[in-house]
Every structure is written in structure tokens, then in C-alpha cells.
Specification:
Largest sheet: 7 strands, mixed
CATH topology of the domain at 254-386: Rossmann fold
Radius of gyration: 20 Å
Mean pLDDT: 87
Distance between the termini: 25 Å
CATH architecture of the domain at 254-386: 3-Layer(aba) Sandwich
Helix content: 25-40%
CATH class of the domain at 254-386: Alpha Beta
Shape: globular
């Protein structure tokens, strides 16, 4: 998921979503359909790697394996670094080449007309891009703009679509986390009937919308989820198979992410109790990293009960931590994929008068609300590690779909490399357009300011 401040609290509390995993679409590959369980992202055998740290990160100039599909892997190293951090990049991996191609298109010099069009498309269920293109992009979000993270991710996809003159229409739906999963399924059916040439989004309803996804595939409409949106993890009842039931799934290697979070807790907590939080019940993003975090924890670390579902609602995260902390004020750490929700949850420490000493947080996203709160607390024994917000992954989904429509073979998993990094004072930026937006988003600050009214 991905995850920022939500409203509609009562509606979301009533949800009974089964899973928040991947999505559908046709595929041309037979790559492995299960998440890699190793501690590093899967790569093609024999690939070399290079460290991304603001220096060269792509294949050699002139060596562009995606030229036949109208793409370039010559991504701006600064944008690669911003989106994913100082990762170990698998050079030559076909999946990583698609990621580079998507980021290369994100290097946009936006004029006012393009900004106005992007905002029009962001605010309307359907828009004409003005390019005259014949293709229709469908965007089917199981959540919606009630969540800032989802709103930013939607804009990432729109800005990416505007780099393709072939896309003349963008049609967007949002199920708003409706407890009736037929709403999300009907959104996918509607987009197919509307003539969408491909659909991307996040499948909050998981396997409950599996039939709609498979119907889209049968109709020749590729479906590509982002943020590790598996439509049921392998082994789950009713799980779909990426590369077969839908085109591909874009996102981190969830098992590797869970092991990375466990390492943060192992190295810094060493011994003590930790709390583990997640989003909607059974969603693939949370379940995927949690099921690999637990066995990777040191024997001296115990979890405070079972992982808690928060629906990615800040106030629920607060109530969870209040409950844990009121009975055991000596919790040493937390793992959660949603930093802004964790920021609200930390109010429990203030309400109960518990100091945030010797506390370690292992997070996925990077909303600066949590980071600026960390700076203001000025407690040297309290530390945070995070990966990346991942908003740009919707751009990768759009590029993968466009390449597929031009005849490219698309891997059934597009593993997005990740790395855990420690928060410093520099991660709190007072000039951000809005504090609830991930600092790793590739949407320009000027556009973010217009989106959120600042």
C-alpha cells in the first residue's frame, strides 16, 4: 500500500475486505509467480549490480534495450535515488529496465498547460488528454483520494500517461474502501466496458475482485497493480497468478522487505517487545512482509500480540498503540508500512506520559510528519529507519502496460529494489507542499501544492 491520512473513519471501520494484494491483466511471460523469499530483490541470472548513490545507475550510454518499444533506460540518477534511495540496482534485469524507463519519463519539464491538464484528470472521473491518441487508460483504485498517499499515486500515473501521446483518454474510478466488494469489482467491469486498453490500480478487495480481474484478462485488457498489490499471495485461497491471471505485479519483494525490517529491529532492539501493525485485514502488502518479518526476528524479541489491522487509518493506529502501551509501557520497537499513521500512533506516548526512549521504528513509507516529529522530540535513543513511499510505482505500471501493448514481454513480477535508511534531521523539510506527502514522490512540489490547496 500503500497509506497516508484517511477520513471516512466510520465507513472504513465497517470494512470486511479479504485481501489487499495484486491485480489482473494478460501476460506474455511465464516467470515465477511467487514472491522471492531471499533477502535481496530477484534479478536475472548473471546480472551485474551497481550502487545507486547519485552517480551513474543505468546501462552504458547508447545501450538501450527498450528502444524498440519507444522507451529509454537512461533515467536521471537523481530521480532514481529520490524514488528508491541508495539501492543495489540489478543492471540488465528486464524488470529493472522497465523501472528505469518509467523514471526516465518522470523527468518532466511541466508547462502550465500540462499541469492544468493533469489537475483536470486528477479531479475528474474521465478526461481527454488533448493528444488525440486512441488509447484509454483505466485507473481502478480500491481506495481513493480520501487517502493522501493514494491521491499522490493517482497523480503519478496521470503524469506518466501524459508522456504518451497514444493515450487520449484517462478514466478513473475509486471504490473508497467500500465494505461491499462488488463496488470495486464493478469498477473494473465498467472500465472494460468503457473500452480501456489497460487498467492499473490497487486491489484493496483482493481475491474478492478476482473474477472481475480474470474477466478483464479474458477480454484482452491487461491489469497491473502497484505497491506489491498481489491479488492474493501464493498459497492463499482464491489467489490469482501474476503472469497468467493478470499481467504483472509492481512492488517490493515483500519477503525481503520484511527481513529488512526485522534486521532493523534485531540490530537496534536486540531484546524486548515490539508491536507490528498493518493495513486492511489480510491485504497482501502487510501480510507479505509480516510473514517474513516474524521468523527473522531474534529469539530475544517478542511481538506484542498478533499484528494489528489499522485499515491505514491514523486514529485506529493510535488506539492500537494506546491499548498496547497502557498494559506494557516498555515496548522497544514497531514495524509498520505507514509512517504518517505511526506519527499519529505516537500520540499514545504523550497521552500516557511514556517517554520515547530506547525506541526503534522500522517503516516503509516516508511521510515527513513522522520525521519532523522525530526532530522535535530530540531524543537521541529514539531512531527511525524507512525504505520509500513507492508512489512512483504507478508510473512503472503505466509504462509496463504501454510496452506490453507494443509487443514487449513483461515479467510476471516487477520487483522494485529497496533499502532501509536511517532518518536524519535532513529528512524533515519545512518547505514540503504538504507534510503528509512522501518525500520520495516524483510529483513536483508545485503540482502537490495545487493538489492539496497549499
Amino acid at each position: 500500500m500503500k497509506p497516508t491520512r484517511m477520513v471516512g473513519f466510520v465507513v472504513i471501520l465497517a470494512m470486511t475486505l479479504a485481501a489487499c494484494s495484486g491485480d489482473s491483466g494478460t501476460t506474455t511471460t511465464a516467470a515465477a509467480a511467487t514472491p522471492t523469499t531471499s533477502g535481496t530483490p530477484a534479478t536475472t541470472q548473471g546480472n551485474s549490480t551497481t550502487t545507486v548513490g547519485g552517480t551513474a545507475t543505468t546501462v552504458a550510454p547508447g545501450d538501450n534495450p527498450l528502444a524498440a518499444y519507444g522507451e529509454s533506460t537512461n533515467a536521471d540518477p537523481a530521480l532514481v535515488l529520490k524514488a528508491m534511495g541508495p539501492i543495489d540496482a540489478p543492471v540488465g534485469d528486464p524488470a529493472y529496465d522497465i523501472i528505469l524507463a518509467a523514471i526516465a519519463r518522470a523527468n518532466q519539464d511541466l508547462d502550465q498547460a500540462t499541469i492544468d491538464k493533469a489537475l483536470e484528470c486528477w479531479n475528474a472521473p474521465e478526461c481527454d488528454t488533448g493528444s488525440g491518441g486512441e488509447l484509454i487508460m483505466g485507473f481502478a483504485d480500491g481506495g481513493g483520494h480520501l487517502n493522501v498517499w493514494r491521491g499522490v499515486t493517482h497523480m503519478e500515473a496521470i503524469l506518466q500517461a501524459l508522456t504518451y501521446p497514444e493515450i487520449g483518454t484517462i478514466v478513473s474510478t475509486e471504490a473508497l474502501w467500500n465494505a461491499d466488494t462488488s463496488v470495486a469489482a464493478n469498477d473494473i467491469d465498467f472500465l472494460v466496458q468503457r473500452g480501456a486498453d489497460f487498467i492499473t490500480g490497487y486491489p484493496d478487495a483482493g481475491v474478492a475482485i478476482g473474477d472481475a480481474i480474470k474477466a478483464a484478462t479474458a477480454a484482452g485488457v491487461p491489469y497491473i497493480p502497484w505497491s506489491a498489490g498481489w491479488v492474493g499471495l501464493p498459497g492463499q485461497d482464491g489467489a490469482l497468478v501474476p503472469g497468467q491471471d493478470y499481467l504483472t505485479v509492481v512492488g517490493e519483494n515483500l519477503c525481503a522487505l520484511g527481513e529488512s525490517m526485522a534486521k532493523v529491529l534485531n540490530d537496534n532492539v536486540v531484546e524486548g517487545k515490539v508491536g507490528v501493525l498493518g493495513g486492511t485485514p489480510g491485504n497482501a502488502l502487510s501480510l507479505g512482509w509480516q510473514q517474513c518479518l516474524t521468523p527473522a526476528l531474534n529469539s530475544g524479541i517478542q511481538q506484542v500480540g498478533e499484528p494489528a489491522d489499522t485499515y491505514w487509518v491514523n486514529d485506529i493506529a493510535l488506539q492500537v498503540v494506546l491499548g498496547w502501551l497502557s498494559t506494557d509501557p516498555d515496548i522497544k520497537g514497531y514495524a509498520y508500512e505507514y509512517s504518517d499513521g505511526m506519527n499519529t500512533a505516537l500520540q499514545a506516548y504523550d497521552q500516557l506520559g511514556v517517554p520515547v526512549k530506547n525506541l526503534t521504528l522500522a517503516m516503509r513509507t516516508d511521510e515527513q510528519t513522522l520525521f519532523c516529529d522525530w526532530v522535535s522530540r530530540n531524543e537521541p535513543t529514539y531512531n527511525i529507519w524507512y525504505s520509500a513511499g513507492g508512489n512512483f510505482q504507478s508510473r512503472v505500471a503505466v509504462t509496463a502496460a504501454m510496452m506490453y501493448l507494443k509487443g514487449a514481454e513483461i515479467p510476471s513480477q516487477i520487483d522494485v529494489p529497496h533499502v532501509m535508511r536511517q532518518v536524519t534531521a535532513a529528512d524533515c523539510k519545512a518547505d514540503r507542499a504538504t507534510p503528509a506527502v512522501s518525500g520520495t514522490s516524483l510529483v513536483p512540489d508545485g503540482v502537490l501544492a495545487l493538489m492539496f490547496g497549499n
